[in-house]
Amino acid sequence: MKNDNCIFCKIANGEIPSKTLYEDEDFRVILDLGPATKGHALILPKDHFANLYELPDETAAKVMQLAKKMATQMTEKLVCDGFNLVQNNGEVAGQTVFHFHLHLIPRYENDGQKIGWNPGSPSQDELEEIKNTIV
Ligand code: AMP
Ligand code: ZN
Predict the structure, then answer these.
(1) CB of 20 closer than 8 Å to CB of 60
(2) Is 101 an annotated catalytic residue?
(3) Number of C-beta neighbours around residue 83 at 10 A
(4) Which residues pair with 107 in a beta bridge?
(5) Could you say which of 65, 75, 110, 127 is the most buried, measured as most Cβ atoms within 10 Å of its Cβ?
């Protein structure tokens, strides 16, 4: 299912051109236009799912298999030193395009990028309470 107002639907389905690294019946992998590092790419499902919560299990499984394949190929060809997979859900989490996508970010020694967080220091009691909230 496509969404007429969604730019990633148009890109994924070839209505808007992109630098495509890979395509099959379910996905297109494109170079990000605002890359964090050289080779930063995005896996886009061809169907419209706004985020991870909407992604069917079967598609989610295929996404991770494709991420592994692309990361392996890109690491070999780009000779990068490491790799981040990043996937944002919701504005507060940094999502700016509301069509599910997985970022493939090659990392290089001294690439100047920081992808991370400021670690907290919860007590064991706080961790226990959080665990009991989740499960
Ligand atoms: P996010 O912040 O996780 O929603 O990521 C959106 C990503 O899409 C950003 O890294 C943008 O640089 C990238 N982006 C936005 N528009 C395009 C486009 N037309 N082609 C390629 N990448 C895009
Ligand atoms: Zn879409």
Answers:
(1) no
(2) yes
(3) 18
(4) 82
(5) 75
The helix/strand/coil state of 43 is strand
Token pair in block for residue 1: 């299912």
Whether the CB of 95 sits within 6 Å of ligand 1: yes
Answer for the pair 6, 48: CB distance below 8 angstroms, yes or no: yes
106: which 2 tokens?
């090659």
What span, in angstroms and rounded, lies between the C-alpha atoms of 22 and 72? 13
- Residue 12 has φ and ψ, to the nearest 5°, of -60, -35
- List, for residues 39-98, the tens digit of each pLDDT value: 999 999 999 999 999 999 999 999 999 999 999 999 999 999 999 999 999 999 999 999
CA of 94 to the centre of ligand 1 (A): 11
Pocket-testing residue among 42, 85, 88, ligand 1, by greatest number of atoms within 8 A of Cβ:
42
Q: Whose CA is nearest to atom 18 of ligand 1?
A: 33
One of 48, 99, 101, 103 is an active-site residue; which one? 101
Whether pTM > 0.85 for this model: the answer is: yes
Residue to substitute in 33, 38, 88 for testing ligand 1 pocket (most ligand atoms within 8 angstroms of CB): 33
